[in-house]
Amino acid sequence: MTRATILGAGVAGLCVATELIGRGCAVTVVDPAPEHGPHACSWWAGGMLAPFCEGETAEEPVVRLGRKAADWWARQGVPVIRQGTLVVTLGRDRRELDRFARRVPQHRRLDGAALAALEPDLGGRFERGLHVAEEAHLDPRAALRHLRERLSQAGAVFASAPAPGAGLTVDCRGLAARDVLPDLRGVKGEMAVLRSADIRLSRPVRLLHPRFPLYVVPRPGGLFMLGATQIESDDRRRSVRSVLELLSAAYALHPAFGEAELVEIGADARPAFPDNLPRLSRRGDTIRVNGLFRHGFLLAPALARMAAEMACDGTTPELMHADHG
Ligand SMILES: Cc1cc2nc3c(=O)[nH]c(=O)nc-3n(C[C@H](O)[C@H](O)[C@H](O)COP(=O)(O)OP(=O)(O)OC[C@H]3O[C@@H](n4cnc5c(N)ncnc54)[C@H](O)[C@@H]3O)c2cc1C
């Protein structure tokens, strides 16, 4: 039986551990933090599984590989909500909607009535919108808690430091792997969580804006995750300007957000390579999975499958990259 040590219990590490244990490996997951929490970039994610909307700016592999993510999460027993994504814009930014529609052909155009039928609480607020039906979302913190529990039940060991010994190592340390991946960089994302009993949404809503694009992802318990800035920086401070922009955009989406409870403000740096595509690399018995950028929950399942196939079947995956570490 192959012994595998996974470094990092973020979304990358837990997806790799799940794929390897499913192939009969003896898996140890090592992370200095005892639980999933704010130390990990995965903690701050919105949980959108939106390959087509992301394809507006992301490259083709993100769309193609991301299409399978919702099924993967559902197969692990994670509740996946398949209501698609709603895309809207304020009246003065109409051209943004047309530009988005050209770049994301998987949409259906909505007039005001169709939009109100889809999201009644936004009825009367927007004359047009786009529905990208084949997209989904999940609660990312609950999803990772669920993967940890499943892995433990299947015999995976969770440890704070690696035990000495031979075997495969899969390095999924996110931004901490910059010690061996010199072109890995941080891209800051700030977010907020609001609670409101006055507004209900069934799906993520993207508000297009030339300067402050916003998305709102509904979560159980009347919570809404607002995201996210995208700033070339690995500092994790939450700036007043970014928070103001996020909250103002939410208020523009629906004034009821003005009365919402501000539950949380957070920030982290997304691990990204220069082309913003994820990579696998291998040196000896160490495989590295990193660079998930904006797409940790969307792409970790595909990357994990590739890493497991590389480890168990000796295949060379498409996102394989030379290891200069
Ligand atoms: C605001 C925001 C919103 C986002 N929204 C989405 C979204 O809607 N959909 C989506 O798909 N993606 C989203 N993302 C992106 C996603 O969060 C990241 O791509 C993903 O979290 C990266 O996961 P990771 O496992 O590589 O890194 P991390 O989650 O950072 O995990 C790395 C782990 O390695 C551990 N570690 C560090 N050093 C060591 C060591 N020496 N040994 C062992 N372990 C170590 C850390 O403790 C940590 O637990 C968002 C990101 C942000 C910031």
Please characterize this protein's 3D structure:
It contains nine helices and 16 strands. By secondary structure, the protein is an alpha/beta fold. The strands form three sheets. It has an eight-stranded mixed sheet with strand order 5-6-4-11-12-13-10-14. A six-stranded mixed sheet has the order 8-2-1-9-16-15, covered by helices on one side. A hairpin with a 3-residue loop joins strand 12 (214-219) and strand 13. It binds flavin-adenine dinucleotide.
Describe, in short, the structure shown.
The protein has 9 helices and 16 strands. The protein is an alpha/beta fold.
Helical content band: 25-40%
List the uncertain runs.
none
Roughly what is the average pLDDT, rounded to an integer?
Answer: 95
Q: Main beta sheet, described? A: 8 strands, mixed
Instruction: State the CATH class of the largest domain.
Output: Alpha Beta
| Count of domain modules | 2
Bound molecules: flavin-adenine dinucleotide
Q: Count every helix, treating DSSP H or I runs of 4 or more residues as helices.
A: 9
Ends distance: 28 Å
The CATH homologous superfamily name of the largest domain equals: FAD/NAD(P)-binding domain
Strand order of the largest sheet: 5-6-4-11-12-13-10-14
Q: Which geometry do the CA atoms define? A: elongated
Fold-level CATH name of the largest domain: FAD/NAD(P)-binding domain
